[in-house]
Description:
The complex is a heterodimer of chains A (112) and B (113). Chain A is mainly β and 112 residues long.
Amino acid sequence: DGGITQSPKYLFRKEGQNVTLSCEQNLNHDAMYWYRQDPGQGLRLIYYSQIVNDFQKGDIAEGYSVSREKKESFPLTVTSAQKNPTAFYLCASSIEGANVLTFGAGSRLTVL
Amino acid sequence: AQSVTQLDSHVSVSEGTPVLLRCNYSSSYSPSLFWYVQHPNKGLQLLLKYTSAATLVKGINGFEAEFKKSETSFHLTKPSAHMSDAAEYFCVVSDRGNNRLAFGKGNQVVVIP
């Protein structure tokens, strides 16, 4: 079945450490996205990529980095510069030019 | 820039009674509108979408929504709530001029047996 796989589902990090969240899709979608979800805040866009080797900052990119070396993969690194990284992170994809998103199951990051 | 307002962050309904979740939007262009549902610790799933065809849109699981341009609203309804409808619901707007999406803050729905 086609879909988006995010890993790990749960991740704990000490302050000052970088962590990388994986996102893989087999939908042949061109565009991929990372969102951050906090309770009562809705979803906020971190980064998005419309084609391989290209990506743009979203509304809250500070303290995060991404890469898009393959069409199927869009990993997100949460760096030590992110002041409040504890959150639920959602990866999504879409056909280029479309605005209907398919979401992964999410990764919950907790900073200890 | 487009934006979405969802009132009533928490909504309680009795099983078998109607569900109404309100959504008002702001958009500079002809909008596309969506409702997504999220069950605990899961990703979001598309319930339905409006993209300038019929103003009454039917979605999955018995949900429907009506686009009212004069009221800038896209309220979500279901005639009879089921226990499995307990989840968080997000209204989303996208301007035709770009593919950026604006999410509402969500409605947490509790279904009382």
